[in-house]
Amino acid sequence: MEKKGSLLIIDDNRELLSALDICLSPYFDTIDLLYNPEQLSYLLQKKKFDLILLDMNFSPGQTSGNEGIFWMNSIREANPDTGIVLITAFGDVSLAVKSMREGAIDFILKSWDESKIVSTVLAARKIHYSQKKINSLKEKGRQLKSDIDDRYRMYYGESYAMKKVRQLVDKVAVTEANVLILGENGTGKELIARQIHRLSKRSDDIFVKIDLGAISENLFESELFGYRKGAFTDAREDRPGRIEVASGGTVFLDEIGNLSLEMQTKLLSVLQNREIIRLGDHNAIPVDIRIISATNKNLYSAVDEMTFREDLFYRLNTIIINLPPLRERREDIQYLSEMFLQELNEAYERNVRLSRDSKEFLQTHEWPGNIRELKNLIEKGVILADNGQIELLDLKTGTGKKFSGEVRSFNLYDNEKKIIETALISLNWNISKAAKELGINRSTLYEKITRYEISQN
Q: Most buried among 97, 193, 355, 402, by the most CB within 10 A?
């Protein structure tokens, strides 16, 4: 076996120190011997050890083991990653077991059994390296989580509607309730889902996003539930599904409204039973998950039309969060624009600002792509801007989208309804002012509001 690692042996018996040195020297790169534990603090400042063998009693007549526990705690305070194996007399075994509960890896007896000593110490070294690897992975995981949190930062804004959303998120996050997030594309449904997870009791565990709109029906079971080797032609090894991987954490089911009825039935079974069965297997695997789902579809209508299962709908929507489109929260546009501008200036190492025309355009644009579209436009402006300022042309250059003021549809019903909605929202539902701007009287406006089923909520 190759030599590996550094070992420190601490004991007031010089003969035992010498014997352990000879016994273990073939297995370690370096071995240091310490007769007086009072010198331990000085030695630990000079050198780090992978493993320390520590006697439990040093003073004559002492058998309590308190000295060993004291020095073990000192070692752990100075070097938390160092593995500790205790050296004890046969009668002190119960004390050694107690010390293991406080952090020691194992213990060896002073009654000489060379093979037992070697096997115990080498096993402790293996455990020590495994724990170091685990700690390293945990630290990388924390760093990755921090990076992901920065990437998916939540921007609520200052509007009344988003303040209510924030209050609801804060309330529901600390519970285990399933949450259904409704909103148009680009309104920030995933950001809300991640914020709920971040504030929940499961925040230290995994957040798994499953884009149901991107998974074909024939891959649905293998992706979500996993499979056993040989379950189908390309199943060359066992593989857990995404729901099994997420156990202990949060599953975000994006585009839940795109599921076929058959896929809905399979998902419902998992949510009801809290267990999955891999393809090619018959054994159920329990899962501990919290479900957050999202869609841009009207699930109420889908239930009425029998394209979405009512029992699944009510299983998902313990709490519903409705995200308003950006055009209905225009007071947030300036705040969001400034936040994105600051973030993207840092990302691209620039220092540009928005011109007056650009700000006016952002404030009046209809935002069919919502916050995602706003951020994309700001990013384009930061990249294209000259002379330290984002001009209106920078925002419009190179886009295939039609902007406010251009006709998107020739359907009179759609356009008239949209014009009325825009006038009412921009004038804070002042009927008299809206009617005047639209060139009609109040009674006609009321009639059209009723006909087009326009509501203030």
A: 193
